Amino acid sequence: MNISFSFASLAMLFAAFALAPLLMGVILKVKAFFAGKQGPPWLIKYHTLVKLLQKGSVYSTSTTFIFKLGPVVSFTTAVMLLLFFPFAGMAPVLSFHGDVIMLFYLLGLGRFFTVLAALDTASPFEGMGAAREVFFSSLAEAAIFVILALFFRLSGSLSFAEYFTGTHAVNLWSESAALILLVVIALFIVLLTENSRVPVDDPATHLELTMIHEVMILDHSGPDLALIEMGAFCKMLFYASFVSCLLFPFQTGTPFFNIIIFAMVMTLVYAGVGLVESITARYKMDTVPNYILTSFALVCFATILTMEFVL
Amino acid sequence: MDTFLIALLLIAAGGLQALVTFRAYLLMKILAVSTIIGGCGLGLYNAVNQIFRQVEPFVCSCEWLQIFTFSLKIDAVSAFFLIPVFAISAVAALYSFQYMGDKERSAATAANYFFYALLIISMSLVVCADNLISFALTWELMSISSFFLVIYDFHKQAVRNAGYIYFFFTQAGALFIFAGFGCIYAHTGSFSFDAIAAIPESVKLTAFILILIGCGSKAGIMPFHIWLPYAHPAAPSHISAVMSGVMIKIGIYGIVRFYLLLAPTSVLFGQLIIVLGIVSGILGVVYALGKHDIKRLLAYHSVENIGIILLGLGIGMLGVATGHKTMAAFGFAGGLLHVLNHSIFKSLLFFGAGGLLRQTGTAAIDQLGGLMKRMPFTGRSFLVGSLSISGLPPFNGFISEFLIYYGAFHGLDLQGASFILTNLTILSLALIGGLAAACFTKVVGIVFLGEARSEAAAQASETGSLIIISQLILALFCLLIGIFPEPFVRAAFLASRSIPLLADFDSMQFLPVLSNIARTAALFLILFLLIAGIRKLLYSGKEITQSGTWGCGFTQPTVRMQYTGASYADSMVDFFRPFVRVQKKYSGINTVFPGKTTYSSHVQDTSETGLTLFLVRPILYLLGKLRWMQHGNIQLYIGYIVLAIVVMLIFI
Predict the structure, then answer these.
(1) DSSP string spanning B114-137?
(2) A88 in the Ramachandran plot: left (φ > 0), alpha (ψ -120 to 50) or beta?
(3) What is the ipTM, given to two decimal places?
(4) Which pLDDT tens digit goes with each residue over B52-72?
(5) pLDDT, averaged across chain A
(6) What pLDDT digit, counting tens, does each position of A235-248 carry?
(7) Of A306, B179, B210, B245, which sees the most CB atoms within 10 A?
(8) pTM (2 decimals)?
(9) pLDDT at site B548
């Protein structure tokens, strides 16, 4: 296992962790801009977290220890992801050949407990959200693994550090740019799915019947809810960084420029999410699988292309 | 005398004494359980020793009926399969002590212990058999003893039916195996295993496919899996655990053994196995999602896991055919380790299901609920089993799936059909993983969480202590293999050395990959504890209150409003509609003052309906025409036999 406790790696990790809530503000600002509103303040998510951390909690009499375990496990898995990700081309804190498989399975573990915590409340609405979450994410997970297979085909890599640092980096500026373009679109669809954004799920909706992620955490409150929220910010940050690293190789030679460009690309990705949310309506629940399968089809197409044109 | 034979004798003694002492019920159970556990322990020690010491294979043979030689040989592959046979059988014996609590049926219980001992012995002999005739004989012994175990509750019609279906499948499967043996014998002219590799390549494929169908029907490969969802719910739970956890793996052993013996060079074998693996894996889990009976659901999950094992073996075979050593080593090691892992968590889950059945009297998922509070130990160990079977870290299922992934990823530099199948393997593993997690969130969420949906579930209490202990032992191993995978993976690598390509390949160079997994898992656990600690700090001094679940504005919720297993899985099963037929019956609301409305759904197994329509009905039609031959006249029956012998003599 490659362990990098260098100042740069650790600093990037903490910066990512600290700035994840701020970047969520970008989405809100873009949406407000399209709606012709001023929008909430940039630091709104920090206010929310602080407010939640100061509160106590109300627990349903139906729940067991699983309900309290859910937020902790989902937050822990999100933190694990950040530990292995090479932000702005810096070496990640940890990495090993094969880590991507483990990390996506850890995400699965987080989801498993989130879903169980939802079912623990005995609420029919939360059951509904849970059923949708496991269905859609199992399709998204399959798409992710086809992407990983494609990356292995292109570069022989099996870890985030190998994907985005070193000589075999995969990105839009490499030889196989055409394929990566398809992957970027596919990954963006997966990002929207896995982070419960429009057009799959609407985080701002007010009717429980139509929610996916939000309805699953209805009964959580106080610090538990803060952990869930923070976990969701980290997960969003991870997917956005994944897309960003594909968009641009952060290999300018100067770490300072890398970080500046990385911050700009990240803002663009978040703004893109806000843009999609502003100009599209969400799909009906029964058409969401088709939407996710679009990403799947794109990567499969890219994979088939490698059979003829690469190697 | 060898330890292995002593172990078998001990198990046999345990089974035989039950037939004598059944009048003293408690004594019979104590003696049977303790001797079987003792024998299994000895056998397990011997098998582990065999693998790690890498001693010369144990060989033993004796003349039998003057013409047949009964011979045994324990090499690394046999020893690897002996581990789950002995380990799970021992824990299941412990479980049975309290589970078989019906004093009224002491004779039936004694017979059950006798056939149980016979099943353990026959299973361990199948994996050690060293010629065709020993394999066939012990295979039949295994089938017949397990048939008697299934029909323990023979006074129930459903159980008898399940028994007949199982018996039919097991015998039809054996016919295919014998046909495969016939192909081999026709070219080698001997029952020995040694000459098999020399037969022509085209015959190899035919023989392999015949044996694959035969062993596959035992293993539960789709579409030969139909007996599983009948037999598993019918059998007592520890028997379902051993059958699903261990016995079906003997089918896998048959496939592996004959693959090794035939030593084929074509990529076709690997491709065939991968295709079967994909079909069994994905459809197995989809059917499981649609099932409302917990034991039937677990039976379909066995089909799914057999699919995962086949994916591993198929990747290994592709690796061997293309000379890709990393792929071969990881594919075989992953497949073999999944055999062990599945035996552990599947038995654990069947034990849990048995405990539920015993305490609530129902196996219907939608009748249960909220059992985590009333059955805390069963609930927690079932949760561990569910996490393991979903392949999630840090539990054992992940380790074997990781090995298969690793092998498959490294096979992505192949070309053509092999590349597409390798890619499909990765895709199916991911999809199976996601759907398995969906299915087990359903089971845990509906059965153990929420509120009780029936009186029986509301009144349930924790099961007996031995039942709990046997579950805890297995749950512990699920976590142990997940956190310290190295010795187990080493065993799987050592067993896969039996493949000629890998004989001198240093697969141990890959063990660091596993230590990375182990470290990440440990890091995850540490981080988890740390964050749980921080959460505790955040809550110190805060006001924590209890209240009802938020009903989204509805103030009078009832437990009947909870999401059910059927509704949870509905959209997912619907997605796979071309392959899965769902029959829904809904009375509808069609009057101004609606009366009682009903809704029921039933997931049909396409291979079962297909088999009934295209195979069973035509055969029954034909045989119906020949019914006049069955007249009950014994003299004429003897005449048939004489006639048959005369006709055969003409051909000779």
Answers:
(1) HHHHHHHHHHHHHHHB-BHHHHHH
(2) left
(3) 0.95
(4) 887 777 788 887 777 788 888
(5) 91
(6) 999 999 999 999 98
(7) B245
(8) 0.95
(9) 85
Nearest residue, CB atoms, A142 vs list B373, B430, B532:
B430
* CA contacts within 13 A on the Cβ side of B628: 1
- Kind and range of the H or E element at B46? helix B25-53
Mean of the pLDDT values across residues A90-109? 93
**A64, A152, A218: residue with CB nearest B409:** A152
DSSP-H helix ranges across B323-415: 325-360, 371-374, 376-389, 396-410
Domain coordinates of chain A in residue numbers?
19-306
CA A195 to centroid of chain Cα atoms: 6
The domain segmentation of chain B, as residue ranges, is: 266-535, 604-652
Q: Is the pLDDT reported for residue B346 higher than 50? A: yes
Q: How do residues B565-615 score in pLDDT, each as one tens digit?
A: 888 998 899 898 888 888 888 888 888 888 888 888 888 888 888 888 898
Using a CB–CB cutoff of 8 Å, tell me whether A62 touches chain B: yes
Cα-flanking dihedrals φ and ψ of residue B581, to 5°?
A: -100, 125
Residue A94, strand partner residues: A3
8 Å CB contact between B285 and B300: yes
Mutation target vs B (from A3, A54, A62; most B CBs, 10 A cutoff):
A62
Q: What angle do CA B517, B523, B528 make, to 5 degrees?
A: 130
Mutation choice for B interface testing from A109, A170, A211, A293 by most B CBs within 10 A: A109
Residue with tokens 């893109």: A272
d(Cα A45, Cα B46) in Å, to the nearest integer?
Answer: 61
Residue pointed to by tokens 């505790």: B536
Q: Quick one: closest CA in A to B439, which residue? A: A134
* CA nearest to A200, candidates A191, A208, A192: A192
Residues present in chain A in total: 311
Distance CA B142, CA B148 (A): 10
Phi, psi (deg, nearest 5) at residue B94:
-60, -45
Q: Render B556-582 in DSSP notation, one character per residue.
A: ---GGGSPPHHHHHHHHHHHTTTT-EE
Residue B422 identity: T
Cβ separation B437–A111 shorter than 8 A: yes
Contact between chains at B434 and A146 (C-beta distance less than 8 A) = no
Q: Which of A1-15, B210-224, B528-542 has the lowest mean pLDDT?
A: A1-15
Mean pLDDT of B330-351: 95
Q: Quote the percentage of chain A above a pLDDT of 90.
A: 70
The DSSP letter of residue B529 is H
DSSP labels, B476-519: HHHHHHHHS-HHHHHHHHHHHTTSGGGTT--GGGGHHHHHHHHH
How far apart CA A169 and CA A152 sit, in angstroms, is 11
